[in-house]
Amino acid sequence: MATWDVVIVGGGSAGLSAALMLGRSRRGVLVVDGGRPRNAPAQHMHGVLGRDHTSPLDLLAAGRAELTRYDVAIESGEVAGASLIETDASGDAGALFEVELDSGERHLARRLLVATGLRDELPDIPGLADQWGRGVVLCPYCDGWEVRDRRIAVIASSAANAHQAQLMRQLSADVVFCTQGAVLTPSARAGLDARGIAVEDRSVTEVLADESGRLRGIRLEDGSQWEADAVFVAPRAVPHDDLLRQLRARSMRQGGADQVLVDEDGRTSVRGLYAAGNVVGPRSSVPWAMSSGSLTGAAINADLVDEDVRNALDARG
Ligand SMILES: Cc1cc2nc3c(=O)[nH]c(=O)nc-3n(C[C@H](O)[C@H](O)[C@H](O)COP(=O)(O)OP(=O)(O)OC[C@H]3O[C@@H](n4cnc5c(N)ncnc54)[C@H](O)[C@@H]3O)c2cc1C
Q: Which of 48, 38, 115, 127 is nearest to 79 (CA)?
């Protein structure tokens, strides 16, 4: 069984950025990637400096190509499980993880980084999922500019999404906020009204497309329709954090969800176990995921250097 300095689970923006830092530090790294990054349904990625309006998959392909310079192996597949097989009670010395792929292949790693992203759980409205990443999107900074001055519908998951409608009003004067039963405070309602944002209290029952599959608008419970060029929603973020939980990383209830905790270096509560990107933070931003992965990669290398120093001193006796 091969022993790596670091096994990284997930080869999206976070995982590959960590691999770059570790590869450049002459660490032996294995990245195992299922090949389903969160933004795969989007044709173009925006707000990523130097890569604005390019394919998100091209970015990852370029990242993979860059990593061939270093001692970084990338394997397609899913990690099915991981266990901590060795750790020091003092919390000082190294750790050793065993990682098992769904193929049955096993690897050992001195450090384990989980960068597995999250799943967007979409509102259960007929026709909505078919438009995901095209006519139906979530992030004003990722997809707002492209629909400036167009007809925009924001479908709420909670009253807090009134703010999303206000962000969209920055880009277009034609915005409707569909409350979907969420109860708005008088001040939120007044704020929407003051900026000319229509508030629709009838429920949205369908997202409509034309014959070519292009978004056409939304249908309401009484059968009436709003024409729309874009629909913004607020999906529930469901982290792919099974491995972190399997390894008993500490979590805490935050913003209505139970989130695995990491410090600013991506350390979890388990010695040697790190996490980066959307698995531990729901931001919709490739630059943020890259930064999270990059900083965590550097922190892991520093942690390994400390262990190497201890080992060298021990070897001297
Ligand atoms: C529709 C849409 C459009 C977006 N557009 C933009 C945009 O324009 N600009 C922007 O900045 N951001 C955008 N985002 C946000 C962006 O997608 C995320 O911020 C970013 O992908 C997070 O990177 P990550 O590496 O944390 O996770 P991901 O990119 O999701 O990568 C995680 C990787 O881990 C793999 N994985 C998961 N579990 C396992 C496992 N057990 N074993 C092996 N591999 C596993 C997955 O297959 C995946 O390849 C968009 C998001 C969505 C949903």
A: 115
2-119+237-316 and 123-233: identical CATH topology: yes
Q: Is 39 in the pocket of ligand 1 (CB under 6 A)?
A: yes
The band of 94, judged by pLDDT with boundaries at 50, 70 and 90, is confident
What is the CA(128)–ligand 1 centre distance, in A? Answer: 20
Domain segments of the chain: what residues? 2-119+237-316, 123-233
Instruction: Give residue for tokens 């004003």.
Output: 140
pLDDT for position 92: 59
Chain segment 51-71, per-residue pLDDT in tens: 999 999 999 999 999 999 999
Predicted pLDDT at 124:
98
Q: Which string of b and e fits 51-87 if b means at least 16 CB within 10 Å?
A: beeeebeebbeebbeebeebbbbbeeeebeebebeeb
Distance 118 CA to ligand 1 centre (A): 7
Topology (CATH) of 2-119+237-316: FAD/NAD(P)-binding domain (3.50.50)
- Cα-Cα-Cα-Cα torsion 156, 158, 160, 165, nearest 10 degrees, comes to 0
294 in ligand 1 pocket by Cβ < 6 Å? no
Give the class (CATH, top level) of 123-233: alpha beta
Res 274 pLDDT > 80: yes
Q: What is the CA(208)–ligand 1 centre distance, in A?
A: 27
d(CA 51, CA 48): 5
Q: Which residues of 222-233 are buried (b: 16+ CB within 10 A; e: fewer)?
A: eeeebebbbbbb
Q: How many CB atoms lie within 10 A of CB 50?
A: 7
pLDDT, position 76: 98
Distance of CA 287 to the CA centre of its chain: 11
Model pLDDT, residue 61: 98
Structure tokens at 316: 């001297």
Q: CA Rg, the chain, in Å?
A: 22
